[in-house]
Design a protein that fits this description.
Layout: H1 2-10, H2 12-79, H3 81-88, H4 94-112, E1 121-126, E2 131-133, H5 143-147, H6 150-157, E3 163-167, E4 177-185, E5 192-201, H7 202-205, E6 217-223, E7 228-231, H8 242-254, E8 259-263, E9 266-275, E10 280-286, H9 288-295, H10 298-319, H11 324-337, H12 352-388, H13 396-411, H14 415-432, E11 439-441, H15 442-460, E12 464-470, E13 478-480, H16 485-494, E14 502-511, E15 514-521, H17 550-561, E16 566-572, E17 576-584, H18 588-592
Helix pairs in contact: 2-10, 3-4, 13-14, 14-15
């Protein structure tokens, strides 16, 4: 017994260190295992949500492309004189009917070639139920059935709108199909002289996103009534899910990336994007358990941790006796690191083993620093990508319409007005084609606004007056490009639909260490009770010139300068709207430096 006690006393340091090491290894391994599983899951879900957000944006772009092609087709059909004339004229014999049919089909073939995607179908129907069908095998519909169906009734009730409707009844041979309809009307009288339909089968619509789906990663397209009109959940097509619709609206309105939800009695991570041109939502449902199980094997991590613990204990037992002195030094140095001296490396002194430990620890410390730097760079790249996602494109319709107006001025002999308009147009295009992140002075932005107003006055007349009240001490200050212009565009084309005349005032001044820009109009205004103060103006459509919606302006300002800056909109019905843009004070010399 005395011999055992003597051995314990002689190896007291070794035993203490060994017990501490064993307990520490086990405790640290458990903690690292739990943390690794949790961090792996969290990191995966964050990365997955960012990736899927970008995927949803790509899917949204495909749907927008389809919507734009539908709008373009509708305009071309509505403006086609041959189709309009042949639909309205009365044919007395078969020869005239054949001639009319041939002429209409010829015009439709030219228009139909530009519809994207090619799987879509174009149908025109006259008031006497005569059908002109570009792809009969795609949708073999009869004129009498289509005329008496709710789709046409809805089109008649809203003749000036392009209406997206879903149907899988006998009309479509029970095939799920999205039908986009528009009444053909006389511009002068508003009288309907025919109907046009663009149809696409659900299985063809599914091709817009099917390549992005997988097991546990599902996509649904929901209309404004909560009906699922397309999904890789085939059994859910046609069903109404108001809860899913409401959740999608909450995600959009609150501006959050994703929500954890319980849908179809399953737990999902849900992302959503609104399609304003279709008045629909794209919903992405991610089954976290299925997706994570393919990437994170919890049992394997635990097994590896246990194996590491056993190996570590065995090695410690074999070599600890030779390392007690050196380890004591290392412990003291590590204790210093516990006082947040993370950048101080360990001294590589003592025996071979102690040097190796110190060297390995220092290598691990360097790797940790490198990893932190990588994380910081990744966050910076993510922020830059978010800013680049707001990069604008010039709307081609603005270019076409402006050039057409200049051509008309020249024909009318208004050469001086045409030259002035061309100069303003060139300056405006040069400014818009630059980097959207570029800073310009208030004076330059004011010049761009005046050029834009000059073009609109040349095209539409000066029924809307624009006044500029800019404090002289603001002219040298800087602000991001195209911050004010989307609101001027919004006022020009949306604020005066009922009122035909009015004014827009632009005021800029320094106020409480901020640059404040106000755009005030006395147009139609919006009912105050219907304004969501957090989201008003943030859902604006793409503008005619810049393509930048007012929501993008607000997000862009906050991404650049923080939550203390941005856009605030107030409005009163029949009295007008006031937009306040708050920006930081940026001196011109700061940017030059």
């Amino acid at each position: 017994m005395k011999k055992i006690v003597h051995i314990i006393q002689d190896n007291n340091l070794f035993i203490k260190i060994f017990l501490v090491m064993v307990i520490s290894i086990i405790a640290v391994s458990i903690f690292i295992t739990i943390s690794s599983i949790r961090m792996s899951s969290n990191l995966f879900m964050e990365t997955f949500s960012i990736t899927n957000t970008k995927v949803l944006t790509q899917i949204k772009d495909r749907f927008n492309t389809f919507s734009y092609s539908v709008v373009s087709t509708s305009i071309k059909v509505d403006e086609n004189g041959t189709i309009k004339r042949r639909l309205q004229e009365e044919t007395s014999n078969d020869i005239e009917k054949s001639r009319s049919y041939y002429q209409i089909k010829t015009q439709m073939e030219r228009i139909f070639a530009e519809i994207d995607p090619n799987e879509a179908n174009l149908i025109i129907m006259s008031l006497d139920n005569e059908i002109f069908n570009m792809n009969y095998f795609n949708w073999p519909v009869k004129g009498t059935e289509l005329r008496n169906h709710a789709i046409t009734k809805q089109t008649e009730a809203r003749p000036n709108e392009i209406i997206y409707q879903f149907d899988q009844s006998n009309l479509t041979n029970n095939i799920p199909m999205v039908i986009v309809s528009k009444a053909l009307t006389e511009h002068s009288t508003g009288k309907i002289y025919g109907y046009q339909y663009v149809s696409i089968r659900e299985k063809d619509l599914r091709s817009f996103y099917e390549g992005y789906t997988s097991e546990g990663n599902n996509v649904l397209l929901i209309n404004s009534s909560g009906q699922i009109i397309s999904s890789n959940f085939h059994q859910k097509i046609g069903e109404k899910e108001p809860k899913l619709l409401q959740t999608a609206k909450n995600i959009e309105n609150q501006g959050i990336e994703y929500l954890n939800v319980n849908i179809f009695n399953e737990d999902y991570l849900m992302l959503a994007e609104y399609l304003p041109t279709l008045d629909m939502y794209i919903v992405n449902l991610v089954d976290k358990d299925k997706v994570q199980s393919n990437l994170v094997d919890t049992n394997e991590i635990i097994l590896i941790s246990i194996l590491i613990v056993l190996i570590a204990v065995f090695i410690v037992f074999l070599i600890l006796r030779k390392m007690t002195v050196s380890i004591s030094k290392l412990v003291n140095q590590i204790s210093d690191m516990a006082r947040y001296q993370f950048t101080k490396p360990l001294e590589e002194t003592g025996g071979y083993e102690a040097k190796k430990i110190a060297n390995s620890f220092n290598y691990m410390l360097n790797e940790l620093h490198d990893y932190v730097e990588i994380l910081l760079r990744t966050q910076e790249k993510q922020r830059k990508a978010e800013l680049e996602a707001l990069q604008h494109q010039i709307n081609p319709h603005f270019i076409y319409n402006t050039l057409a107006s200049i051509k008309f001025m020249i024909k009318q002999g208004k050469k001086e007005t045409a030259f002035n308009t061309i100069d303003a147009f060139i300056s405006l295009i040069q400014n818009a084609l630059g980097d959207v992140d570029e800073l310009i002075t208030v004076e330059q932005e004011l010049g761009n606004l005046k050029n834009y107003v000059l073009i609109n006055h040349a095209r539409y007349g000066d029924r809307i007056k624009v006044n500029y009240l800019v404090s002289p001490d603001c002219l040298h200050l800087q602000l991001p490009k195209l911050v004010i212009q989307p609101f001027i565009e919004n006022a020009f084309f949306h604020a005066f639909t009922k009122k035909k005349h009015g004014y827009i005032q632009i005021l800029m001044a320094q106020r409480e260490n901020s640059l404040v820009c106000e755009i005030v109009d006395n147009g139609d205004g919006i009912n105050e009770e219907k304004i969501d103060r957090k989201a008003i103006g943030m859902k604006g459509k793409r503008q005619l010139f810049s393509g930048i919606g007012v929501r993008n302006v607000h997000e862009r300002i906050q991404l650049l300068y923080g939550k203390n800056y941005g856009v605030n909109i107030t409005s009163e019905l029949n009295k007008g709207t006031k937009v306040v843009i708050t920006l930081p004070i940026i001196e011109e010399l700061e940017n030059q430096k």
